[in-house]
Specification:
By secondary structure, this protein is mainly β. 11% of the residues lie in helices and 36% in strands.
Length: 197
């Protein structure tokens, strides 16, 4: 594996070191020892797959509040996506900054999303399958989201969004939840219940 840091602390790309012969190729896609060597704690508690039919579809931006904050490894098994991470750690030098990385089945590149960051993607092709290796079990009561088209995030998606879920379309902007995000995402912050209603 070839591990490369991004501008967001804890977010890394994983490129395949392919061993090629006349049959095709073989590569290590995940290695606890190598990930631990760069300071990560590579625990896998759950694996999820999403299938998206149509190019231009947006999924996200999703995140989990502590204590359910999670890291994930995102890999495209078919098709291609523009994958986005938004840093939601108030103590971080890149708080509310984002990165966008193209992931495709052809390239084999994967992305490590650190805890306390939002994640989402736009499909660049039809028939996209994405595999997620998750460090925690999903906790619906601790989930949150950001609008993919929030002007304060200024994410330059590669095309006009053609489809997103009603839930994702209803996420509030950062401006409307910045105080909550800052309080609940701060390192060592007390765990607070999510207000409902």
């Amino acid at each position: 594996m070839q591990l490369t840091p991004t501008s967001i602390d804890g977010a890394w790309t994983i490129d395949l070191d392919r061993q090629v012969d006349r049959r095709g190729w073989f590569a290590r896609a995940f290695c606890v020892t190598e990930l631990a060597s760069i300071g990560l704690d590579p625990v896998v508690r759950q694996a999820n797959i999403s299938h998206t039919e149509q190019a231009g579809t947006v999924r996200g931006l999703h995140f989990q509040y502590p204590p359910a904050d999670e890291s994930k490894v995102v890999r495209v098994m078919s098709g291609a996506i523009s994958d986005v991470i938004v840093d939601l750690r108030p103590e971080s030098a890149t708080f509310l900054d984002h990165i966008m990385i193209e992931l495709s089945a052809h390239s084999g590149r994967a992305l490590i999303v650190p805890p306390r960051c939002a994640h989402g993607f736009m499909t660049l092709t039809d028939q996209v399958e994405v595999l997620y290796l998750m460090s925690r079990d999903h906790a619906p009561n601790d989930e949150g989201g950001l609008r993919f088209d929030d002007p304060d995030l200024a994410i330059e998606w590669p095309r006009t969004a053609s489809l997103l879920s009603d839930r994702d379309a209803a996420f509030p902007t950062v401006r409307h939840q910045r105080a909550t995000i800052a309080a609940r995402m701060a390192a060592g912050a007390p765990v607070l219940p999510i207000p409902h209603g």
